[in-house]
Amino acid sequence: MQIWDIDQLRADTAGCEQTIFFNNAGASLQPRPVVARVVEHLRLEEKVGGYEAADMVADELADVYASVARLLHCAPEEIALQESATRAWDAAFYSFQFGPGDRIVTAASEYASNYIAFLQVAQRTGVEICVVESDSDGQVDIEAMRKLLDDCVKLIALTHVPTNGGLVQPAAEVGRLAREANIPFLLDACQSAGQIDLDVDALCCDMLSATGRKYLRGPRGTRFLYVRKSMLQRLLPPVLDLRAADWVAADRFEMRPDAKRFESWESSAALRLGMRAAIEYALALGLSNIEQRVQSLAALLRERLSAISGVTVHDQGRIRSGIVTFTFEPYSVQEIMRRLKEKHVAVRTTDRFAARIDLERRGLNELVRASVHYYNTEAEIDRFCTILPTLWT
Ligand SMILES: Cc1ncc(COP(=O)(O)O)c(C=O)c1O
Fold first, then answer.
1. Closest CA to ligand 1's atom 6
2. Pairing of strands 185-188, 79-82
3. Which pLDDT value is given to residue 27?
4. Does the predicted TM-score (pTM) go above 0.85?
5. Cβ < 6 A, ligand 1 pocket
6. pLDDT tens column, 12-61
7. Number of CB atoms found within 10 A of residue 244's CB
8. In ligand 1, which atom is closest to the CA atom of 213?
């Protein structure tokens, strides 16, 4: 199927029949083949039992690692699969041993859960958190970051595409700085996976976490972590179980040699197979095609919104993602979302709890977030921008 065959892509997307669905940054609509794969496996589990069903699709389950590796351009041994949300990022972050005098360097748009983890570890260990200034485009100031990097910096952590706006951080430039300074680089690609072509070598990142449910269009409860082979020996996973390590003698364990040392034993085979189907779907369309279409639809939405009296679009960055944020004076963002829902339009709101440092620095509290994907259309954008000004009439 071609990315440009929008009718076919929409026919594959049951959820877009009734709704203008602009919440792809929350949890995107799953294509039919993804849902079908999950349901088929659940039916198999119903008939033969969960362990027995997993045995029957063992090769396909092993191939999930290969699919993620193809998406990120890395080796399957560098992938760990996770079920619980932020835990993939946590597995990498909490593997570092920080102490007083050490520093973590990050950017203003860092995601809330990541920053809360920095604060917790700072309280425990005395590590200092340094937030690099943003430049006039709102992205992390590369020169300011360069000046901060010295032997005390033990980690650079960056959110590639923040949850609260259209910014795409210059992750590859940050990665090159990290590489030159020999500092580990942890990239949160939760919002970029599935809408941007990710290559861990081009990004120079050592660890990357992402979710299946957002722009990859996979099921909820699916996540993965990439850890560069050369980093594996330097990280001590914060939690180990019999998946992550072997109990080789009564008083001794050995960690797995690959990234599976960051996994835990129990998992949902159905969801993993669904995520694999979603990744294969995206790969078949081509990530650079997806990237191009998402960015051009989002640019059109920003242009149309800006023409509406009372609307301010708040997105920053030299390159902008599929996430479009705006306010519409004098209305509250919650009320805008509620009234749009009545008109069968799905958007979301975002606030300081999601990315406090960025929104505080910009003097913003709450925004409406309308996030588009490739299966959305120009006609939906037109309709959205026609409905919005009429919500209070
Ligand atoms: C940038 C970013 N990182 C991490 C997360 C957390 O993902 P999860 O809810 O799967 O833990 C989100 C979720 O919105 C996000 O936008």
1. 86
2. unpaired
3. 98
4. yes
5. 85-86, 111, 113, 159, 162-163, 188, 190-191, 211, 223
6. 999 999 999 999 999 999 999 999 999 999 999 999 999 999 999 999 99
7. 20
8. 10
Specify the pLDDT at position 3: 72
Atom 12 of ligand 1, residue of closest alpha carbon: 190
Pocket test for ligand 1, best of 113, 164, 216, 357 (most atoms within 8 A of CB): 113
Q: How far is CA 292 from the centre of its chain?
A: 18
The CA distances from residue 72 to 36, 75, 192, 209, 278, in Å, are 25, 9, 11, 11, 14
Between CA 205 and CA 218 the distance in angstroms is: 24
pLDDT at residue 1, rounded to an integer: 64
Partners of 247 in beta bridges: 253
The ranges of the chain with pLDDT < 70 are: 1, 84-85
Cα of 188 from ligand 1 centre, angstroms: 8
Query: How far is Cα 369 from Cα 198, in angstroms, rounded to an integer?
Result: 23
Backbone φ and ψ of 115, nearest 5°: -70, -35
Output the pLDDT for position 85: 57
> Residue 214 burial by CB count (10 A; 0-12/13-18/19+): exposed, middle or buried?
buried
Question: What is the per-residue DSSP string for 242-311?
Answer: TTTEEEEETTEEEE-SSGGGG--S---HHHHHHHHHHHHHHHHH-HHHHHHHHHHHHHHHHHHHHTSTTE
